[in-house]
Amino acid sequence: MSQEYHPYMPSSNSLRSRIKRVRRSEMPPQPQTLEEINIPDFLQFTFNGVRFLVRDFVVGEYRILLFTTQANIQHLSQAPFWMMDGTFKTVPVIFMQLYTIHAPVGGDNSRVLPLVYSLVTSKSVEIYRCLFEELLDFAIENSIDLQPSVILTDFEQASIIASRLVFLTFAIKDVSFT
Description:
Elements: H1 12-26, E1 53-59, E2 62-67, H2 70-78, E3 82-87, E4 97-105, E5 111-120, H3 125-141, E6 150-153, H4 157-166, E7 171-174
Parallel strand pairs: 3-6, 6-7
Antiparallel strand pairs: 1-2, 2-5, 3-4, 4-5
Helix pairs in contact: 3-4
């Protein structure tokens, strides 16, 4: 576009606001309670039609949403190590954290990619244990043997304890992801 038309263009902030407005109009409203969460079918699948929301379950008063694919679990099963960590900055307010599992994908030219995402409402041993058991069940349902040999994680004791309860044959390495 030539310079002469720039004064007639909206500002970057204005464009950003418009995009947010359009996105909000196309998406369901943000739930305010766990009971209000109802994920429409079109958000449970990838653009290629592969199921991505593989588990949505309640543990007591807590809720866990588990996102991955069969292909991602296959990559995870072949990975020499897993990196597990949680973040609090990018989650809807009714969830406590987004917990992710990353692993190298691609052989000699591998890159570490996020392969499992989970929204959790608590950071207890019980919640992590249930999360890891559901992940293991999903792998078994897809005839995938999911036994990590090394898990790299931060110093979060609840996830370390739960990992040891569910995944029996691995070494844990505590690292700082900051």
